[in-house]
Amino acid sequence: MKLPDYYEDDMLRYFEGHPEELTLYEALFARMSAVVPEASVKVQKSQISFYGRHLFAAVSLPVRRKKEWPKHCLLVTFGLAHRVDHQRIAVAVEPYPNRWTHHVVVSSVEEMDQQLFTWIKEAYDFAQIK
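Predicted structure:
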């Protein structure tokens, strides 16, 4: 994965005060690097964004947390050309025709499974052609 200068410092600053979420992110990042090694990453104020040709996924700390969500979790966001109807999808919206943004709550390493990374790889492939 292509990392910008100061990635480590920016990433640590993003997760400051959230050690459990940092641990989750590091596991997610390691797996993401294996699934889409040619992608690049950028730490921003509200999220950590992953790019191919275009943005295809992001990881964030939940800002508007639903009551039933775990106390310590990440929100993994990815975009696809179609809506995924699955119990793990917390929210799905269509901001543009045939461009669906999906949000998945991840609170454990076990939830970083083949299903999640199938969606992320599909989002990467979609971002390459849109």
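Summary: The longest strand covers residues 89-96.
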